[in-house]
Amino acid sequence: MGGYGSGRKFGAGCTEDYRSIDIRRWQRDGYLVPGRYLDWQWLQNGEKVAAISVKVETGRLRLIYYYRSNDAEWENLDYPVSLQTTACHYGRERYWFTCPAVGCGRRVAVLFLGGKIFACRHCYRLVYKSQRETADDRASRRAETIRRRLGWQAGILNLEGDKPKGMHWRTFERLRAIQDRFAGRCLAGILARLRINGGGKNRFCCTESCTK
Ligand SMILES: [Zn+2]
Q: Are 139 and 183 in contact (CB under 8 A)?
């Protein structure tokens, strides 16, 4: 049985930053046999950095490990995670975890240790890196919302349109200024990502397709 030194907090991190367990792998490796007991380890540069014990029971697993947050006392955790099965091709069954977090119970293939207990990515509000919205995506979305409201052609590279009939000039000028700001922010992000605007580390980069 291994120890856990993670002091991670809840938050909108990326799934790759957390330790996880994947039922598909355990099923593939033939571990899901009642009575089976396995030690599961995480390695970093070939060294064991964390481990848990898993006891396979009928219809459920028990996860057993030590956990502490920051400098608190080590706590010995031992709790069940129910398993579910669904039919898949050729009459075989596919196994799933039932997220053990209170009030969740989602059927998932992967559980993450983002705090004291293993839970699904919804519970930890995790996003996969490729799904994480970049700052310029967000700016672009806001600019587009305003363009729609003004009745302008969609797309921040298009020209500004006219003031819609019936809208006060003051409102129009305010929205135009906001649209301009978000569009500018988005363009700056795109330029940074494409490395047009000088070099340096790209702080907007967070997609997997990015090669930086
Ligand atoms: Zn959950």
A: yes
Measure 209 CA to ligand 1 centroid, in angstroms.
Answer: 28
CA of 84 to the centre of ligand 1 (A): 14
Structure tokens at 76: 């010995």
What DSSP element (H or E) covers 27?
Answer: helix 23-28
Neighbours of 196 (CB within 10 A): 9
Q: Is 56 helix (H, G, I), strand (E, B) or coil?
A: strand
From ligand 1's centre to the CA of 97, what distance in Å?
A: 10
* Tens-place pLDDT, residues 130-184: 666 677 778 888 888 999 999 998 887 778 889 999 999 999 999 999 988 888 8
Token output for 37? 């007991």
- Residue 69, number of CB atoms within 10 A of its CB: 15
CB of 13 closer than 8 Å to CB of 109: no
Q: Dig out the tokens for 25 from the structure.
A: 């792998």
Q: Measuring CA to CA, which residue among 26, 27, 8, 28 is closest to residue 18?
A: 8
